[in-house]
Sequence to fold (261 residues):
Amino acid sequence: MLAATYETKIDVVIPTKGEWSLPFCIRSVRKSVPINNLILVAPSFARRNIENLSDIVVLFDEKNVGKARIEGLKMVETPIYASVDSDVLVTPEWFKWCWKTIQQPDVGACQGYARHIYAKNYDPVQMAFFKRGGMYGKGLACLGNTLLKTEIVKEVGIPEIAVREDWILRLKMEKAGYKWISNIDIVCPHLKTDVDVWKHGVWWGMMGGEVDVKRNLLRIGYHCTIGLSKRPLTQNLFLVALQISALYGVLKGKMHSALKR
Fold:
């Protein structure tokens, strides 16, 4: 087992709602990472189902993953820690590469690629996107399979937002002079299906994700016309549904905010 070959143990932070995938995620972490403390950040209703799965359980009831990650960070004791999402399976190869990469003095974080192996329509589209350079030519940024230097994260601060907290953290880290290295060839299975991705699109829009309504409508038109000659019909229909889900999320979020006033 690879984890036994590393003398330095690290803390692992996993935000969760007690999803069905959590036991599989934790099993992969225990097989791949030399663990100091396994820290789960979860809402109160999930406590009974998860308290025997970890060393530390942090109860956090806000629907804000950025703040949940901050609560987990407060419990970290080690100079380097792993941030893992509850629907991602990390691997020994992932940890081996990340551990070597994070030792570089100017690197603040490093990650592999959490690939949506069960999202048959979304996965090839996302793969093509990252092969072309991903976010502004920088690759990708997520906190689902990532090693980070604790003091650097505390220095720049995890954003207290419900979506895009990972990408904003990367920008803040790079602005402070540190590198965030992503490697699309280091694959960790991401257990989301196409339906899960669609639901995430709704959540993204509802929680204030970056959704340009005009751009989304233009993308829908593109996928229904020019896109048909570039991708299979099922992929284009899925992408249309994804754009609509984000717009629906924006509308739902605005209605929810209006009702709160």
